[in-house]
Amino acid sequence: MSETGATGATGAGAPDAPGARDAADAAGAAGAADGRRAGDPRAAARAAATGVREGAVGGATGRDPRGATDRSPGRRPEPGRRSRRVLARGRPGGASRGPSAAAGGLAVAAAVLVAAVAGTGVPGGASADRGAARPGPGPGAAVVRPASATEPGAEPRPEKCADGSNPAESLKPSGASGKAVERIKKKDKLVVGVDQNSYLWGYRDPSTGTIEGFDIDLVKAIARDLLGKDGADRIVYRTIPTDQRVPAIQSGDVDMVVRTMTINCSRRAQVAFSTAYFQAGQQLVVPKKHARVKGFDSSMRGKHVCYAAGSTAERMMKTPAYAELGARPVVVPNQLDCLVRMQLGEADATVTDSALGAGQAAQDPSVELVGEPETLEPYGVAMNLEDEDLVRRVNKVLEDYREHKWKSSYDRWLADDMMGTEGKKPAPPEPLYRD
């Protein structure tokens, strides 16, 4: 399992194809330089992240990924001008490379972008099975109800579990130290499952090697409460793909997962959640030009629609009402893989949380969110069902975080690109308790 501390990655990475990682690194560095020349550190981070993605695609496919995006080579931001969407001018990783580079395909891009958990049985890139278009659920398939989605276009509403409760209800906060909290204090480190390729939420900045984002700010606040003022320096980040979040918690590989993880009824039976710290909803990301999918409607029929394995997007798209739309699924380990698929013309649209979709659009202005969210998706910190004292302690942290730190983190990471996507003035969700 890949582990990172304050100084960056220390675990084994995914295998490289010749030249692909060099291309990605070069593109990321060049992108960061572009952003720095613009006089905007946040733009530098955005440009670096985009440069890695573009360099990875160029190195993997032997073609310049900029070709479809109206970006002029060598064009840079004007000095001193702040841009909401400064992009790296990605240096393609080998326009003259032959079949040996192209054979890496998306697996190479995923090796750079995804960094899946080693030893979990889930590869870092999309497997041939997951990457291929697959038909929807056939007769007799299990009906899986997603959070709040009933039918395409219906007004989203909070999910209700079989007992009538709201899955976002958690345990009342407490500052006490029980068995789980003492376990973390004794080992003097907090092991957290995170993402490293969800831009603005949890992503590795190629110019610094550190993992940053809205989710990471919350992780640091929790670590400081549990381990003291320097607790943020004693975090072990373990990057995990979407469908390995629950197994990582259940096996004890991580103390918690903070990774844009939606609280819902089925997950609540497997792991414990804090109160919600953000709310999003399932939405479509499509190319701005010549989009073939217009919404959750008949325009989906026969089109390749991408989403992450184990995500609430997958759950929603497998329900009968959405399966009847006739989309051809493209299932990948992580939602950012879908952006690469759209750039390569292998997917017509992406279904993902509106929050993550905004991050994709921030990285690549050739795509955009369309329509309205189909669901209500409250994000929570996930922990082991047995760690009730840790759940209460995290909820105690969230009480203070909502009041004093949530807005500043939102302004730093999300305000430029998320404003209005929540459908109301940005604010943390009100906590719900069941005891």
Annotation keywords:
16 helices, disordered N terminus, 19 strands, globular, seven-stranded mixed sheet, 435 residues, alpha/beta, five-stranded mixed sheet
Low-confidence stretches: 1-39, 47-147
Report the end-to-end length measured between terminal Cα atoms. 36 Å
The overall average pLDDT, rounded, is 75
The radius of gyration computed from the alpha-carbon positions, rounded to a whole number of angstroms, is 21 Å
Counting DSSP E segments of at least 2 residues, the number of strands comes to 19
**Helix-strand makeup class:** alpha/beta
Gross geometry: globular
Order of strands in the sheet with most strands: 2-1-8-4-9-18-10
Q: Helical residue percent?
A: 25-40%
Number of helices: 16
Report the major sheet.
7 strands, mixed
Name the beta content range: 5-15%
